[in-house]
């Protein structure tokens, strides 16, 4: 009897997550008259990729912004997209690996969300999702992240006192049961496509020539955009992978992090785990370096705490693994050169981006 009583007491103290019942087939009042939104960006960034079936509208972006910050998408309403993607950190979270609703540690470092509208080559560190809409589907049902089901999330939104009206204004639906995961991720993707950074010192100095660079910035730039004719003691340069205005070539590479005897031995297979190409094992996305000073720790597993550690890693030259990128090779790096490179990397910081009122939490 004592054991049974204890078990009953323990069971009654467990946290219960209330799951709403599905709504009746209710008509949503309100007007559908969406306002087109034009993504204003400098010409040098190129053409943003906007799907024909999900054009940007003011109503869709506003809805996506609320959904991005709303913990309603998680099983216990404690976790939102913004929990791992903070504006102050260029929409990363400064943890080695993110923490989900159950306190479980994720598998990889949270990538910053910046200039995603220009990425033509898949999302996540391993590129496993082709679009932002597809990418937004995964975290809700990942047991290490939001740990809910889409069926439950849809029901919560359908029964919400405010969201049905917002979905109607954004997408023109008539009935509450028409609020589906497909519309949720479309709205979130619209908001994420507006997260564009183009006002860092790098833009002002080196792309728009609004002022002259300092001596340290210029020296760092020459090291970063090194070419063999520059004669910097065989320094390979950073721009072979992080070149152009986006400071990434959107590719997947093995940048010499791990020493393995066989390509099957990587603890995290990365791109190879998606496409089953053995030669792509251990390859990960080349991230943009925009706002890189704000997004520590670094690499897909967050192993480096500082930019100086990252530079030391590259100067060491990798491990000679079969599929290491050709640019991974040993090179001398003096303390002054390291300092100059860090000064230049800091020019990628865009404070207007992280402080943009349009990107902040609408519930505050």
Outline:
With 364 residues, the chain is mainly α. It has 13 helices and 2 strands; from the N terminus they run H-H-H-H-H-H-H-H-H-E-H-E-H-H-H.
Draw up the topology in text:
Blueprint: H1 2-13, H2 58-69, H3 132-141, H4 150-158, H5 163-171, H6 181-193, H7 201-207, H8 215-224, H9 239-242, E1 252-253, H10 272-275, E2 284-285, H11 307-316, H12 335-346, H13 351-354
Antiparallel strand pairs: 1-2
The largest β sheet comes out as: 2 strands, antiparallel
Question: Would you tell me the overall average pLDDT?
Answer: 92
The computed structural class is mainly alpha
Order of helices and strands: HHHHHHHHHEHEHHH
The CA-CA distance between the termini, in Å, is 51 Å
The CATH class of the largest domain is identified as Mainly Alpha
Residue windows where pLDDT falls under 50 for at least 5 positions: 1-15
Please count the helical segments: 13
User: What is the name of the CATH architecture of the largest domain?
Assistant: Orthogonal Bundle
The global form is: globular
CATH homologous superfamily classification of the largest domain? Cytochrome c-like domain
CATH fold description of the largest domain: Cytochrome Bc1 Complex, Chain D, domain 2
Widest sheet: strand order?
Answer: 1-2
